[in-house]
Amino acid sequence: MNNPLPKKELFDIPSGIVYLDGNSLGPPLRQISRQAVEVINDEWGKDLIQAWNSANWMSMPRIVGDQIAPIIGAQPGSVAMGDTLSIKAYQALAATLELRPDRRVILSDSGNFPTDLYIAQGLIDTLDRGHKLLTPSPEDVMDMINDDVAVVYLTHVDYRTGRLHDMGAITERAHRHGAVTIWDLAHSAGAVQLAVEETRTEFAVGCTYKYLNGGPGAPAFIYIRQDIVNSIRPALSGWLGHRDPFAMAPQYDPARSTERFRIGTPPVVQFKLLHFALKIWDQISMSDIREASTRLCEQFIQEVEGRCPSLELVSPRNALNRGSQVSFESNDAYSIIQALTDQGVIGDFREPNILRFGIAPLYLDENDIVRAAQTMESVMNSECWREDRYQVKKQVT
Amino acid sequence: MNNPLPKKELFDIPSGIVYLDGNSLGPPLRQISRQAVEVINDEWGKDLIQAWNSANWMSMPRIVGDQIAPIIGAQPGSVAMGDTLSIKAYQALAATLELRPDRRVILSDSGNFPTDLYIAQGLIDTLDRGHKLLTPSPEDVMDMINDDVAVVYLTHVDYRTGRLHDMGAITERAHRHGAVTIWDLAHSAGAVQLAVEETRTEFAVGCTYKYLNGGPGAPAFIYIRQDIVNSIRPALSGWLGHRDPFAMAPQYDPARSTERFRIGTPPVVQFKLLHFALKIWDQISMSDIREASTRLCEQFIQEVEGRCPSLELVSPRNALNRGSQVSFESNDAYSIIQALTDQGVIGDFREPNILRFGIAPLYLDENDIVRAAQTMESVMNSECWREDRYQVKKQVT
Question: Which chain B residues are closer than 8 Å to A59 by Cβ?
Answer without folding.
Answer: 395
